[in-house]
Amino acid sequence: MTDWYYNRKTGEVEEGAQSLRSELDGPFKTREDASRAPEIIAERARQWAAEDAAEDN
User: What is the tally of structural domains in the chain?
Assistant: First the structure.
């Protein structure tokens, strides 16, 4: 099974970790998920913030 990564520096999707790990988000299971990495990461951040806010109340 291939892992897919989103390269934050180039904005490209990579099959397997081809670049410096510090430049990559992932792994993702599909190319499509890797291509949506910024959107997925932003949504996860919103969810975590909402959970943190709920815990504070």
Answer: 1
Domain containing 44 equals 4-56
d(CA 42, CA 11): 15
- Strand, helix or coil at 55? helix
Taking the chain (57 residues) in consecutive chunks of 10 residues, what is each chunk's mean pLDDT?
96 97 97 98 96 87
One-letter amino acid at 39 equals E
Contacts of residue 2, Cβ cutoff 8 Å, sequence gap at least 6: 15, 16
Pairing of strands 13-15, 24-28: unpaired
